[in-house]
Amino acid sequence: MNFFKSDIMGSRSLRMAAIALAGTFFVSLPASAQLSWGDQGSKCSGTTKVDYARLYGLTLWDNWPAKCNATNGTGSLPHGKPTRCVDKASLGMWGEWDTPNAAACKPKEPHWGTVTAYGCTARSEGKRIYASRIWDATGNVKSVCEHTPAKFNDKYGVSHSYTGGESCAGRGIGEMWAEWRVDDPECGFNHWGVPKADHCTGKNTRQWSSVLYDIPDGEDHWEACGKSPIKFDGKDAYPISCVEDPTTKEMWGEWEREDTTCTGSRWDTPKADYCVAAGKRQYSSILRDIPSGEAWEIACRETSGTIHGQAFGRPNRCILDVSMWGEFDVDDPSCTGDERTAAQRADDEKAEALDKRIEEAAELGNYHQAILAVTKPDNAQGLLKQVLESDAAKNGGYDTATFMISSGGSFVVGYDHAEGLSMTRKSDGTFACAPMWANSFTAGAQAGAGSSGILALSKGGFDGLKGESNGFVMGGSVGPAGYTSSFSWNYGNATGDPDMIAYQPGVGAGFEVQVAYNHTWTGVTREFACNPN
User: Fold this and answer.
1) How many domains does the chain have?
2) pTM of this structure
């Protein structure tokens, strides 16, 4: 029989007896096997970490305690000699290493779990309840809850600090929870819903909007909207405009916020044209990515670019010809004089004259109003009020009137751009105004080019104008004056209602005849107070 296997264990007396018996049958004894630490682990004894392991490879005749005390730790054990060795009889010889004041064995400090927002308290109090559980509290757990500092951000990102929990109480088995009552505009009167991101309104700028809830009975909705701030990045922000939904009568606020995803309009690859003067060559480029709702002329005048290596803050001329074109007079020493035809020179002079008038009118700092000032009659507001108060408008249920000046050209396929002023009658009998624009695509039997002034009636307020429309257009203009008329139906607006738009006759200039399918994109820019008297 063989007593030299390292896994033979027993009491010391049994091992000695085995060694004596072995001496009876064997002349010499083999050396100890390779020693190794196995079954490694750790535990805490107070603040002391105790690593432990079993020593393998011992033979029956080895001095087990001496071997244990002389073997350095390996693996996850401290790499020195054991602090002590423990003979566990049939379980073998074990080494233990002490690490005093180990971080892993220090008592855990009480701390708060995730702070969660719950419902509102009484409406008159205007507060929301936030709650959290206290963890690793010992002793008087309620006292620990009341005196453990808490710091958290509310749902708007605003930081709040407390010396301890408020309203500490047991919840569940062995759980202690605290509640905090935090001011929240959604829990009082006049609170905003979750804001939503709308369209880009310019380079690095996006419109956001939200609906106003819980307006007290008897309070003016427009006034409530204007005086109610919303939280953006933890700061109060008042709406820059307010819009009432004509169907639901909900009041919406609108804000503008920085958004780098709104890259704004940009110039396409420019093409070299002709020389316009000695040392100057005209380059032209189409304006791309005009923000939704932005008037094309405004975007043209506000878009900078680098043309043939030369930086321009804006084009020298803006030309609407199916697309919006910018014309840039670029330095070119090869140009010895003006190569333009008489017609080209006349078009450029006309564009420059219009641009000068717009610049003069824009001294007030508002391009939208500037374009209206130079392209619309002075009595436009009075005209629109007269239309809205006509029997035709009232009997037809129309609440919005629009005056536009359009220009475009067509040959089988056509394109038209129009800008104008819209006026809507609000539920309280007052009037609001807003600039509007429309870009139309037509396909059918048509030819020519011209411009015209158009009166339109529609339903649904300004929102009834926004979106896209399909319809049928027919009419024409010949010589200095002509006749135009059309009709279309609107879909895809803010309310989803198919509000009819009825176009009234207008006068035009140029030559144009058309009987065609029409698809129009329409937008309304910033609302402003109007004075139709």
Assistant:
1) 5
2) 0.31
